[in-house]
UniProtKB/TrEMBL annotation, chain A:
Pfam families linked to this entry: Acyltransferase, GPAT_C, PDCD2_C
Organism field: Serinus canaria
Name of the protein this chain belongs to: Dihydroxyacetone phosphate acyltransferase
Enzyme type, top EC level: transferase
GO BP annotations listed: cerebellum morphogenesis; ether lipid biosynthetic process; fatty acid metabolic process; glycerophospholipid metabolic process; membrane organization; paranodal junction assembly; phospholipid biosynthetic process; synapse assembly
Positions with biased composition (Basic and acidic residues): 658-667
Subunit structure: Part of a heterotrimeric complex composed of GNPAT, AGPS and a modified form of GNPAT.
Keywords: Acetylation, Acyltransferase, Membrane, Peroxisome, Phosphoprotein, Transferase
CC terms in the record's Gene Ontology section: cell junction; mitochondrial membrane; peroxisomal membrane
From TrEMBL, chain B:
Active-site annotation: 528
Residues engaged in binding FAD: 185-191, 267-270, 319-325
Protein origin, superkingdom: Eukaryota
UniProt protein name: Alkylglycerone-phosphate synthase
Co-factor requirement: FAD
Catalytic activity: hexadecan-1-ol + 1-hexadecanoylglycerone 3-phosphate = 1-O-hexadecylglycerone 3-phosphate + hexadecanoate + H(+); a long chain fatty alcohol + a 1-acylglycerone 3-phosphate = a 1-O-alkylglycerone 3-phosphate + a long-chain fatty acid + H(+); 1-hexadecanoylglycerone 3-phosphate + a long-chain fatty acid = a 1-acylglycerone 3-phosphate + hexadecanoate
The species this protein was found in: Serinus canaria (Island canary)
Annotated ranges, domain FAD-binding PCMH-type: 153-335
Coiled coil: none
Pathway participation: Glycerolipid metabolism; ether lipid biosynthesis; Lipid metabolism
Subunit composition and interactions: Homodimer.
EC number annotated for this UniProt entry: 2.5.1.26
Length: 807, 608
């Protein structure tokens, strides 16, 4: 057995866990709160003291070397089974060793898996460093024996929420601070508060951080070291669990039997773990010149004190800084790049192309400061292949093409298919997500470039700022330095030759168009997903709702759209994105969050949400490349039209049936996922309004409406030589003589008509300003003369809703 | 004289008779102190008397010269090793001060002839001699001493005047107003806040008003136990002269050999026996001050009055910005019947502080002084055998340590020295109480001699810096006051900050950074820090030193300590005044200055 003599804090006076507990109970801080509560509740202090003791017993750790050894032993076995390698930066461990001796240390690891804290404790044990005490969620205690074992290995447990309970807060805070002050052991907790289900760093929680910072503010310690630790997994143990959870299949409660079941996992391979122990950051250095000392000098230090605003701001800044350091040091595996490329090229991608793209992305990531672990001398093909092998549950190589494993039961219903596909996409996205925080600044600049009406710097910046605000909960931005982020994004894009900047303008280069479109495609799921969610809130949601109502509601909404095929944004199903979008709206002031006894309720200001949506819509449809002269590109889907329209025909039936009797063909616009019901309703309203002016024409117009209602988004109706066009109005219909014969002498017959809906898709629908038509009817030569490839002149008839026609 | 020579022969007269000491020093000193050349007794470029200093003798052993102090003539065999180990200093690397003042370097005296004529008419003695002027151009901050040794002040007084009574001062202030001159009052010259430094940009003639000739006790009122004294009297003379009548003031700041009563008032001084006698603000009954607006004083000499804010509090701590204090009525007490020293050793500083707090709580004003030293600077590998400069002090402790303190870690040992005064019975009773409390905190009584030696050191400690300066070691002490609950945190953090700053500023040798608790109050304590480092390899040591000192003060303030307990603000700590007393507070002081001295005659630029 290993001889374990850890390096400890120089000022440590050794003491047992129980001594700490009694010190906490006797501390002025806890005693003060006990007396206060006793006075307020009219109870004897002894009863409350008793309560405090219970809280402490529930919470406290009982670190024992025996348990630690036991853990170390079993963990080493388990880890050897599960993982190929664990890589640690040695110099980081050495720095940590110095830090632990010098000042109290707070370890701040990233949180992706339960393995995080087991691994970290195991690591410190292996390196002969003082074992940390860990703030763990109280739900672990539910695990019978394991909870107790964890406790003995140094975990202490905190309730997930205890905002209102002053006694709990006092005891907990004092417990943490006592351990910190005495340098008893490094304190470990997760800034993110919970495991990130998406592998994207979560926005930080401030409670525990402000507790561990307080002893320094009060100068009870000279300094405190904050150590950001980045733990990245080549394959996350809980990957499928997370995907299910995001899709709303509830999280299994932590239980011992669950853990036993997890043994099945042991036979699987989870690749390499990378642990990067960052440079310890001195809190003193961070605080120098920022903290006004007065509030702490004028009140006895044991009185509970609400932190002043600048302290709160400082805590938040530190939290973000630590997370950004975590992100900076997070090791990215080749598979992360593969996943990012693959997700942009669904459903299948040629293997060779994938390799090529992955290599290209590797270069880009490195330019942006990403920390890629690419095994030496490993050729790209091998790296991609080994990634595919490790993640064979997500994607596989079929006939030289890489595809997602989303098939499952082939014969499943549509809903089942959508679910399975979403599962695969979300699992794959978990890996791509690891890149996002590295890419977010340049990517938002790229998107802003496409959004902005011109290339002027201010306009691009204002779009960037908007995006940054909207995504403030989705990605990690240091608060308040929007301009700096923008400049950094521009700098990185310039560095990879994607853009050029002049004094006033930022414009994309020809060479960099690939990069810019790759970046915007990378973040498109978020842009689109947020739009879907905002749209849901602005249209579908009633005024006030709770989070419990919101999540299933928006999930159903997205699910239906996916089933219909009117969106491809599977990631909008992720509850993480839904919550982030909601909280972004709260921050932007479009949704009011109110605390009720039963929990939080939200009130939507639908107008404000629509306004935010407009900001997107001005641009989001335009995400395909465009400039000031050309309209964006779209794909046109062609479907036959039903001859009969039962009054109750619903969208659902339409997708399932496949009759094609109709003489006419109907072409539907499937603008890359942006077509949706908003347009539909908008059209109806406009048309209706116009129809009212045309009472005599009502009949024809009603016909038109009825016909169109079957497929509201149609832009072209095609029926060469058939029944003729579908008129919007009785006026200005051409007669035979109005249609000239073809140059070859043959008669011109009706071929197709362009519907007014196109105007909406092209966003040239502002009345009175844009071009406008009721319908455009194209007549072509009945003989189809001029079979060559040259252009021929044809005849077009423009019919407006009310007034005369023109050629 | 016979008595005196006997005392001089015997280094440790036992039992030490304090009264005898005063009488014999009086005999010697009264012969030597004649007008106006007291400065000839004192070093021109260092602390204290010319004949008293630490030197390394031919054997390379440290020795304290002169016969004024009990340490005089003693050899300190381990001191050399200690200084070498602590600072990495070596006797081979020596820097020497200029032997004497180079008169040519001194800025010329520029005095308006009309003023000189007026001044001559008043018959007040004055001097424009370079040495006289330089002597009054500085206090005892490190940078001032450094300038004396190696450079020259940019601005010094143009003329020194020696008024002998209140009326002289009135005349001088009137003349200064008439001719628009700048007056800087000068008492004992022991300032450690750059308060005596002449503002460089001062274009007017600077008059140094030396109060040293106003040194008489005007009267003693035995019924009311008060004495009216001229403000220029030096602490030890005051005690000595009062002792002749069987009285004392009990005000004993560490600088009492040199500092003056007027200086105490102007800086809000504190003495080490303040637990019984009180600080200067508790001792003063009446103050007469000459300002450009006229004379400010109260109409009666009463223990307390309710007449609005106490105007004494505008005067005390005004640091020479408002006027010259000329006469002070001060409380006196009969010389105590019995005096006893004591000492207690604690296993560590924490226990010591806890004990002091408890003693302060329970016994309050029943003992004269308690003072806690952190004996060995922790982390500097000081073994007890090389222990410290205070060899005699330590030798005693060492014996004790061997016989009794085997359980104590000598590296973090700490000792409290005690002084009891009063009638014999009470003293013994209080002594017992203190030792009982100390026992509760793990302290062990370490004997009377050790306590007494500890107090003696207070007076010679200031001489050490001059020795250090010869060997590339610069150092300084500074003080603060702090609530009890923050004492330990403050001490630890400030020491740590000093060590860290030294490292950052490129100081190559680990600095000495230690502290002691010198005063106890109900609500807090006064803490002294000692800080010194070897500056070899640093091109601008004074600048580095100042940066570190500033950082240390920042740290003190951040830890809830005060800007100063008794040294005052001067020009050294002005930058923190606003933070210390708020904008409005500063405005209040400014408006007083504005009213009292609108033309800034007292233009030493201290405080505000």
């Amino acid at each position: 057995m290993k001889c374990y003599t850890p390096v400890i804090y120089k000022g440590l006076s050794p003491c047992k866990p129980n001594a700490i507990k009694s010190a906490v109970l006797q501390s002025e801080q806890v005693q003060y709160v006990i007396k206060q509560l006793a006075k307020e509740m009219g109870e004897s202090p002894d009863i409350i003291q008793e309560e405090a003791t219970e809280i402490l017993d529930e919470m406290g750790h009982r670190m024992q070397l025996g348990a630690v050894r036991f853990f170390a032993f079993t963990l080493s076995k388990i880890f050897k089974q599960l993982f190929q390698r664990v890589c640690v930066n040695e110099e980081g461990m050495q720095r940590l060793q110095h830090a632990i001796q010098e000042h109290p240390v707070v370890l701040l690891p990233s949180h992706r898996s339960y393995v995080d804290f087991l691994m970290l404790s195991y690591l410190l044990y292996t390196y002969d460093l003082a074992l940390p005490v860990i703030a763990a969620g109280i739900d672990f205690l539910g695990m019978k024996i394991v909870g107790e074992l964890l406790r003995r290995a140094g975990a202490f447990f905190m309730r997930r929420s205890f905002g209102g309970n002053r006694l709990y807060w006092a005891v907990f805070a004092e417990y943490v601070k006592t351990m910190l002050r005495s340098g008893y052991a490094p304190i470990e907790f997760f800034l993110e508060g919970t495991r990130s289900r998406t592998a994207k760093t979560l926005t930080p929680k401030f409670g525990l951080l402000s507790i561990v910072m307080e002893p320094f503010f009060k100068r009870e310690v000279f300094d405190t070291y904050l150590v950001p630790i980045s733990i990245s997994y080549e394959r996350i143990l809980e990957e499928s669990l997370y995907a299910y959870e995001l899709l709303g299949v509830p999280k299994p409660k932590e239980s011992t039997s669950g853990l036993l079941k997890a043994r099945r996992i042991l036979s699987d391979n989870f690749g390499t773990i990378h642990i990067y122990v960052g440079q310890p950051v001195s809190l003193r250095t961070l605080a120098s010149g920022r903290i006004n000392r007065c509030p702490y000098n004028l009140v006895p230090r044991h009185l509970p004190q609400k932190p002043s605003e600048d302290i709160q701001e400082f805590v938040s800044d530190v939290a973000y800084k630590m997370e950004l350091l975590q992100i900076e040091n997070m090791v990215l595996s080749p598979w992360v790049l593969v996943a990012a490329v693959l997700l942009q090229n669904l459903p299948a991608m040629e293997f060779e192309l994938l390799i090529e793209k992955t290599l290209w992305l590797k270069g880009l990531t490195q330019t942006f400061g990403g920390f890629i672990e690419w095994p030496d001398n490993l050729c790209a093909k091998k790296a991609v292949l080994s990634g595919l092998t490790l993640h064979s549950n997500i994607a596989s190589l079929v006939d030289g093409h890489v595809v997602l494993n989303d098939k499952g039961m082939e014969d499943g219903a549509v809903g089942e298919m959508v679910f399975r596909h979403a599962l695969a996409v979300l699992m794959c996205a978990t890996y791509r997500n690891q890149l996002l925080n590295v890419f977010v600044r340049p990517a938002l600049v790229a998107i802003a470039l496409q959004m902005a009406p011109s290339f002027r710097k201010e306009e691009v910046y204002s779009c960037f700022n908007f995006l940054r605000d909207v995504f403030s909960d989705e990605f990690i931005f240091f608060p308040g330095i929007s301009l700096k982020d923008f400049e950094e994004g521009c700098f990185l894009l310039t560095k990879c030759d994607a853009i050029q900047t002049s004094q006033q303008e930022i414009y994309p280069t020809d060479k960099g168009s690939g990069t810019v479109s790759f970046l915007s495609a990378m973040f498109r799921p978020f842009v689109e997903g947020y739009q879907l969610i905002f749209r849901y809130l602005s249209k579908e949601m009633k005024e006030a709702f709770t989070e419990k109502q919101f999540i299933p509601g928006v999930r159903n909404f997205v699910f239906q759209l996916l089933e219909k095929g009117s969106t491809q944004c599977y990631e909008a199903l992720s509850s993480d994105m839904q919550k982030n979008a909601l909280s972004a709206l709260v921050q932007l002031g479009a949704v009011k969050k109110k605390k009720m006894p039963s929990g939080f309720t939200y009130n939507v200001n639908q107008e404000a949400v629509s306004k935010i949506l407009d900001m997107f819509d001005d641009s989001a449809d335009a995400i395909p490349e465009h400039n000031e002269f050309l309209f964006p590109e779209y794909e046109i889907l062609i479907e036959p039209e039903e001859p009969e329209f039962p009054a109750d025909s619903t969208d659902d039936e339409q997708g399932a049936e496949d009759t094609s009797k109709g003489a006419k063909e109907q072409e539907e616009l499937g603008a890359a996922g942006t077509a949706d019901e908003a347009f539909q309703s908008l059209d109806e309203e406009t048309l209706e309004a116009m129809a009212k002016h045309e009472t005599e024409e009502e009949k024809i117009f009603q016909m038109f409406k009825k016909q169109v209602a079957a497929e509201p988004e149609q832009i072209i109706r095609y029926c060469r030589g058939g029944e003729g066009p579908l008129w919007v109005s009785g006026e200005n219909r051409p007669e035979e003589k109005d249609i000239p014969n073809c140059v070859c002498g043959a008669k011109r017959i009706f071929e197709f008509q362009i519907m007014p809906q196109l105007l909406n898709h092209l966003q040239v629908d502002s009345l009175g300003e844009s071009i406008d038509w009721g319908t455009l009817v194209v007549y072509t030569c009945a003989d189809s003369c001029g079979g060559g490839s040259e252009y021929l002149e044809e005849f077009i008839w423009k019919q407006d809703y009310s007034m005369g026609c023109t050629l | 004289l016979e008595q005196a020579s006997r005392w001089e022969c015997d280094c440790f007269p036992k039992p030490y008779n304090r009264k005898a000491f005063w009488i014999c020093s009086m005999l010697i000193l009264s012969l030597m102190f004649f007008f106006p050349l007291r400065q000839e007794l004192l070093k021109w470029n260092g602390w204290g008397y010319n004949d008293s200093k630490f030197i390394f003798n031919k054997k390379g052993q440290a020795e304290f010269t002169g016969k004024r102090y009990r340490l005089g003539g003693m050899v300190l065999p381990t001191f050399k090793e200690w200084i070498e180990k602590t600072f990495g200093a070596s006797l081979e690397h020596k820097t020497t001060s200029r032997a004497s003042l180079n008169v040519n370097d001194v800025p010329p005296s520029i005095v308006n002839e009309e003023f000189l004529q007026d001044l001559r008419a008043t018959k007040i003695s004055y001097s424009q001699d370079a040495e006289d002027r330089v002597f009054r151009a500085h206090g005892h901050c490190l940078h001032e001493i450094f300038v004396l040794r190696e450079g020259m002040f940019k601005r010094i007084p143009d003329i020194v005047v020696w008024p002998v009574c209140h009326e002289d001062v009135v005349k001088i202030v009137e003349l200064a107003c008439k001719h628009n001159l700048c007056i800087i009052p000068f008492g004992g010259g022991t300032s450690v806040s750059s308060a005596l430094e002449c503002p460089e940009e001062e274009k007017r003639t600077i008059v140094s008003l030396d109060t040293s000739q106003m040194n008489r006790i005007l009267w003693i009122d035995e019924k009311n136990l008060t004495a009216c004294v001229e403000a220029g009297i030096v602490g030890q003379d005051l005690e000595k002269q009062l002792a002749e009548s069987g009285f004392c003031t009990g005000h004993e700041p560490d600088s009492m050999e040199f500092s003056s009563l007027g200086g105490w008032v102007a800086t809000r001084a504190s003495g080490m026996k303040k637990n019984i006698y009180g600080n200067i603000e508790d001792l003063v009954i009446h103050i007469k001050m000459v300002t450009p607006r006229g004379i400010v004083e109260k109409n009666c000499q009463v223990p307390r009055m309710s007449t609005g804010p106490d105007i004494h509090h505008f005067i005390m701590g005004s640091e020479g910005t408002l006027g010259v204090v000329t006469e002070v009525t001060i409380k006196i007490r009969p010389v105590p019947e019995y005096q006893k020293y004591g000492s207690v050793v604690f296993p560590n500083f924490e226990r010591g502080v806890a004990c002091l707090r408890e003693v302060a709580k329970i016994l309050r004003a029943l003992f004269a002084s308690i003072c806690l030293f952190l004996l060995f600077a922790k982390g500097h590998a000081l073994k007890p055998q090389v222990a410290s400069i205070f060899t005699s002090f330590l030798d005693g402790l060492k014996k004790f340590y061997i016989t009794k303190f085997k359980g104590f870690d000598p590296n973090i040992l700490c000792v409290a020295t005690l002084l009891f005064e009063g009638d014999r019975e009470k003293v013994l009773q209080h002594e017992k109480q203190v030792y009982d409390i100390a026992t509760k905190f793990g302290g062990l009584a370490a004997g009377e001699d050790n306590g007494q030696r500890g107090y003696m050191l207070t007076f010679v400690i200031a001489y050490l810096r001059d020795l250090g300066l010869d060997y590339y070691v610069i150092g300084e002490s500074f003080e603060t006051s702090v609530p009890w609950d923050r004492v330990l945190d403050l001490c630890r953090n400030v020491k740590e900050r000093i060590v860290r700053e030294c490292k950052e500023k490129g100081v190559q040798f680990a600095p000495l950074s230690t502290c002691r608790v010198t005063q106890t109050y109900d609500a807090g304590a006064c803490v002294y820090f000692y800080f010194a480092f070897n500056y070899r390899g640093i091109s601008d040591p004074i600048h580095v030193y100042e940066q570190i000192e500033r950082a240390a003060r920042e740290e003190i303030l951040a830890n809830g300590g005060s800007l100063s307990h008794h040294h005052g603000v001067g020009k050294l700590r002005k930058r923190w005044m606003k933070e210390s007393i708020s904008d409005v507070g500063l405005g209040m002081l400014r408006s007083v200055k504005e009213y009292v001295d609108p033309n800034n005659i007292f233009g030493n630029k201290n405080l505000l």
